[in-house]
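Posted in: Structural Biology > Protein-Ligand Complexes

Title: Requesting predicted complex, iron/sulfur cluster in pocket

I'd be grateful if someone could produce the 3D structure tokens for the following input. Sequence and ligand are given below.
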Amino acid sequence: MATLNPRAVRGACPDLLHPMQSGDGWLVRIKPPIGGLTPVGLTALAHGARRYGNGLIEATARGNLQLRGFSSASTASFADEMIDLGLAAAEPAVERIRNILVAPLAGDDPQAAPDCLAVARALEEAVNEAPDLRSLPAKFGFAVDAGGLLPLHETAADVQLWPVQGAWAVRGAGCRRALHGTAQDAVAVALRLARACVALFRHQGERRLRHIAERDEAALWTAADLRPTADASPVVSSAGQSLGSLGYGNGRGTFGLLAPFGAMDADMLVGLADLMQRIGSLSLTIGPWRSLHLRGVPDHQVAAVSAFASDRGFVKDAHDPRQRVTACAGAPACAAATVPARHDAVVLAAVLSIHGGRVHVSGCTKGCASSTPADVTFVGHGGRYALIEAGSTVDAPVVTGLDVTAAVDYLKRHHA
Ligand code: SF4
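-- Reply #1 --
Done. Output follows.
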């Protein structure tokens, strides 16, 4: 039977073996394997979500799937099944630190770095086998980019690796300098930066590498005993291209989908796995935009995927207004919420035009669904919403005490 170490504190980072109590029961996260979930794995995960939890599944900005509504007993049974399938590590300390976000098309897009998956797997193996890294915060993570058609935009990951003209570059989040070298060097440098953080976090009481780098980047490189060799060039966001069909020019391509407001039920995932099997798509990855990427879709099956997406309610078009609305679960799923944030997001999205800005609906100031500013942010408080213009959940509101009807009126007058 799997060993569980429940997280009692809201804000702790849950995983499969560290479930977190929420308003609708235990919440667990599955970290998909590098290279993605196969249709078999996806089906097992979705069936488990329905059998052991309440069937609600959310894609996260770290490329994970979050499953809700478990009990402590059902979490243990589900964890056993997922470990047997190779979808989680059996050791809680390893599962906790196994946080590697990989570019969603790595290993599929012929224009992406061909060794990206090998680098990511070598990094994962090294991290798993490094007991000295287990004191890092559960939020500490790595990102491995692959370039190509859908590169990662600048992620929140603490240590970032990306391909540069046949070589690899590594930097810490917020660093202006990077270190270039071979794929093997890149893994070694990433580990050194992580080890430097173990010591720096302990001495400085810090929990994010970015904060150290922004304060004193040289101290980070010195603590890692490394000397950066190049400027870290800015990374261009590719979030806008992540939805719909993207062809590789070789008869295959990818199709990106978004679950409305990041949430779907188990039946939607089972349907997706069935579709993958029918069309010969071998794996599905999750991007940092909460998007689901069917990989290896034959060009002649694009119309079938598009029809499936419309039929099952997935967002498949960057101009779909739902794509611009972010919402957390809200009430009743989350005990901290006094407003049904996701339910209200559906109402608010319906009044947005295709040209409007981004809207964030949050059940409370914690802002689980997004920490970045939106054009309009609604934050629940005492059963009503506070409204923030051009800010995040922690900024000062311009209006408070709105019910959803008043919120709709505001959007219609100012942002529709
Ligand atoms: S932001 Fe939403 S999901 Fe997160 S704690 Fe607040 S109400 Fe709950």
